[in-house]
Design brief:
This protein has 475 residues and is an alpha/beta fold. It has two domains: 166 residues, FAD/NAD(P)-binding domain (3-Layer(bba) Sandwich), CATH 3.50.50; 213 residues, Polyamine Oxidase, Chain A, domain 2 (Alpha-Beta Complex). It has 14 helices and 21 strands. The longest helix has 26 residues.
């Protein structure tokens, strides 16, 4: 099957979901495929830890977004006969300073946040107006006449609405003040009800691996270059524990994340065109951190699917420890109750943090985070310290510090106002274009116009590139 003198027909750089999806398509079509992965595991930003807590936890991709509207992971889960959890209720339980906000007030806050962020802001940006490129999503969300504050009485309710809305910056991986309003809602992604995978998203990764695709772990690709000839050949150089290795192929698919590409890794020869480099630098790459904490038993409201904690402002005359300051840098935080996904209930909570808290939390030891987070949970939910067991474990994701990710996912930033060109959705199109007469392809969530910043977008991009190469090279 191998062409003489070549290591494979196609070398794929990266064994995340996009690289593995491409490898599967190509291997099924009879092509010889070699996948090079820098980490000691497959999956990329899909990473399930199965045995460190009472249930599996996903440090990366977690939800099947738009479960009822065509997300391809739904069909895959059905093929796998994989258990799926669809929440019976998406109602928020909001706590602050030891008390639960009354249900009618909580529903009003939830409605205002969800409708403003996911309906009215999109309608304004895509239908009602044509915002300036320098307008941020935050400009719309937090102005005095924003629908976010509609029907709310008094400054406390407005503060709560602001804090709760800002907690959704984990959705973009960037502060809303940095996100472009003009292109909010431009994408054609899957929306609606989300579903969860109780046994972990890594099941999809294992399922998609093709037995005929060769896989090499701990192979960090440092350069990709084209050598002209008849036919041309792509050389991929990788750093390994045993020194550098060079692999030769007819074509290559690069699935390296946008955050790593921004750091000018790997090198390309011929170099990437100036317009490609400009697109890489214009787009944003956000930060998102998950904090998991487990207990011997469930002590929080057992039937609450989503808890939201609103923290009071830090007193100016009192110095806080670093862990407390990091965990409360985001004035409100979403807390998912993983117990409802499992039978028997798994006493585990997951907190989602966006910037700036995400990077602050990742910089601290997990033991310090565990101690401070436990105190915060007790103080916010309020059953009393004597009624709460000590936490068993705490695990913090670390995508910002991961040299093979350097962040979470892409977003479109607002124009900086410096006169330079600003980011647009066309930058995702630019990043998807093949180079070197089609022999160098690119895949990953940052190359999908309609589904950027998603696991399903990454998978779809890998399938797209595989099918393109099959047309180029012939089946």
């Amino acid at each position: 099957m191998h062409t003489e003198g070549l290591d494979a027909d196609i070398v794929i750089v990266g064994a995340g979901i996009s690289g593995l999806a491409a490898a599967r398509e190509l291997a099924e079509a009879g092509k010889s495929v070699l996948v090079l992965e820098a980490r000691d595991r497959i999956g990329g930003r899909i990473h399930t830890i199965a045995d460190a807590m009472p249930c599996a936890i996903d440090l990366g991709a977690t939800e099947i977004h738009g479960y009822g509207s065509g997300n391809p992971f739904k069909a895959m889960a059905k093929q796998m006969q994989c258990p799926i959890y669809v929440p019976k209720s998406d109602e928020w339980s909001i706590f602050t300073q030891g008390r639960q906000i009354p249900n009618d007030q909580s529903r009003k806050l939830q409605r205002n946040v969800e409708e403003t962020l996911f309906e009215k802001a999109r309608e304004f940006a895509q239908v009602e107006a044509f915002p300036s490129a320098s307008n941020s999503l935050g400009d719309y969300l937090f102005n005095e006449t924003s629908p976010l504050y509609e029907g709310l009485e008094g400054p406390v309710d407005r503060e709560h609405a602001t804090a709760l809305c800002n907690s959704w910056c984990s959705w973009t991986g960037a502060p809303f003040g940095d996100v472009s309003l003009r292109y909010w809602g431009f994408d054609g992604d899957f929306y609606g009800t989300s579903a969860y995978v109780p046994d972990g998203y890594a099941q999809f990764v294992r399922y998609i691996v093709h037995e005929k695709a060769r896989l090499e772990l701990k192979h960090e690709v440092i350069s990709i270059r084209l050598e002209q000839g008849d036919p041309p050949c792509v050389y991929i150089r990788a750093s390994t524990a045993n020194g550098e290795k060079v692999f030769r192929a007819k074509a290559c698919i690069c699935t390296i994340p946008l955050g790593v590409l921004k750091a000018h890794c790997p090198s390309f020869g011929p170099p990437l065109p100036p317009r490609r480099i400009a697109a890489i630098q214009r787009l944003g790459f956000g930060s998102f951190t998950k904090v998991f904490i487990s207990y011997p038993r469930v002590w929080w409201p057992a039937d609450a699917q989503l808890l939201y904690l609103i923290f009071p402002p830090a007193p100016e005359d009192k110095e806080q420890n670093a862990a407390y300051s990091a965990l409360t840098a985001q004035r409100a935080v979403e807390v998912r109750n993983l117990a409802l996904m499992h039978d028997p209930p798994a006493p585990v909570l997951c907190l989602d943090y966006g910037p700036p808290a995400a990077r602050l939390i990742e910089a601290l030891p997990a033991d310090e985070i565990k101690k401070a987070l436990h105190a915060l949970l007790v103080a916010s939910i309020g059953p009393g310290e004597e009624d709460v067991p000590k936490p068993s474990a705490c695990i913090v994701s670390s995508w910002n510090n991961d040299p093979f990710a350097m962040g979470a996912y892409s977003f479109i930033p607002k124009a900086s106002g410096t006169g330079e060109e600003w980011a647009t959705p066309l930058d995702f199109v630019e990043l998807s274009k093949p180079l070197w007469e089609g022999r160098l392809g690119f895949a990953g969530e940052h190359t999908e116009l309609d589904c950027w910043a998603s696991a399903h977008g990454a998978m779809m991009s890998g399938e797209r590139e595989a099918n393109r190469l099959l047309q180029l090279l012939g089946t």
